[in-house]
Specification:
about 190 residues, 3 strands
Length: about 190
């Protein structure tokens, strides 16, 4: 459950979620720092992401529960993982198989998170920052889900349709004026 919550709220990659430890979850600032100290830099950037209210509450509940279990077991609380290592892969596959779905993997949750962000009207450059991708990649993949952009286009189209008669009348008046005034905008005027 925790893997799903983190994946859908942050769009983080499976490895970043599975590597996450409690010191990387900053409850005071409401941020999850996915980049590990000393981790070798790769093209798969790991960023710091703000927590939604729901994720914040879920992780606080899990943190209290895990701290108690880890303390009882005698382990060090700070080293405890937030999510069991790669157990998510098997859980997702099992759920997908029961639902009769194919091609489902933890990475699908990353796309789902980005799609939900775009549909909620989150600007593409913010989605790019959250995912650790370039704006160009995010625009190419998720721009089609921008609801606000589609609404703006639909409104402009409706206004144009509503104004069509007026536009055609004005265009006819301009053409009539041009026809009755042969010297108006003669071709030689622009040489």
């Amino acid at each position: 459950v925790t893997f799903f919550e983190i994946a859908l709220a942050t769009g983080a990659r499976r490895s970043a979620i599975c590597d996450l430890t409690w010191p990387q979850v900053d409850f005071a600032a409401g941020i999850i720092h996915f980049d590990l100290p000393g981790r070798r830099s790769t093209k798969k950037r790991r960023v710091s992401v703000p927590m939604s209210k729901g994720l914040y509450l879920h992780l606080q509940t899990v943190a209290v529960d895990k701290s108690l279990r880890v303390a009882v077991a005698g382990a060090e609380t700070s080293k405890a993982p937030v999510v069991g290592n790669f157990a998510a892969w098997h859980a997702i596959k099992r759920i997908a198989r029961k639902a009769g779905l194919t091609g489902v993997s933890p990475h699908v949750l990353r796309h789902t998170a980005a799609t939900h962000m775009a549909r909620r009207g989150v600007p593409l450059f913010i989605i790019a920052k959250i995912l650790g991708n370039s704006v160009a990649v995010v625009e190419r993949t998720y721009a089609k889900y921008l609801v606000g952009d589609l609404r703006d286009r639909e409104l402009r189209f409706r206004r144009t349709v509503e104004q069509r008669k007026e536009i055609e009348e004005r265009l006819a008046a301009v053409r009539a004026f041009e026809a009755s005034n042969p010297a108006f905008l003669a071709e030689g005027d622009f040489d």
